Predict the structure.
Amino acid sequence: MLIIVLDNENKTMADYIEAIKQEDMDVKVNCFSVSDQNSHVVWEELTHLNYPILTEGKRIHCKTFGKFEVFIDGIPVVSKYNKTRELFAYLVDKNGTLSGTNEIMDALWEDGGSNHVSYMKNIRSDMISTLQACGLGDVIVRQYGRIGIIPDMINCDYYDMLNGDPKAIAKYTGEYMSQYSWAEYTNGILSEIKEEKGY
């Protein structure tokens, strides 16, 4: 296992190695100061982590560039149904806009979803109960027949890119929620943003 330490306190690598090796002898530690001239290289490497860096105050992290993944407190979320993750991805894509049940079913099922009303109820319930179990039920907004999320409660590369974050724009390489065909429209918008910014 490789651990990368970014530090502002000017500790030596030996300080970190000694502390970490007490916990795990099979570890390699690289230390960099956040002001180090090579720290941009480190930040580039951090964009490829298997698990996200936790952002203070936001427990949900969504990775939308490439395949969609969702993490709570840095741990991948496991759901009861295959479509639960896709439902949450769709709501993330809608960026806070409330979506009706029929609209969601049309997107999630190629046959229009009319035969999947019961399954839709199950995945919606699964998504809500999973979030509530983590104390995050308030990220979901519900009105009669409509559902959405509160984007400000989620750390998300897609939202960062929409807000003009240069790191997010640089990280986008032309793929957005690539496992979902309904995400192609947003992917086109992101491609235009990338081209306009010249990254």
In short: The radius of gyration is 20 Å. Residues 58-199 form a domain with the Arc Repressor Mutant, subunit A fold (CATH 1.10.10.10). Residues 50-55 have pLDDT under 50 and may be disordered.
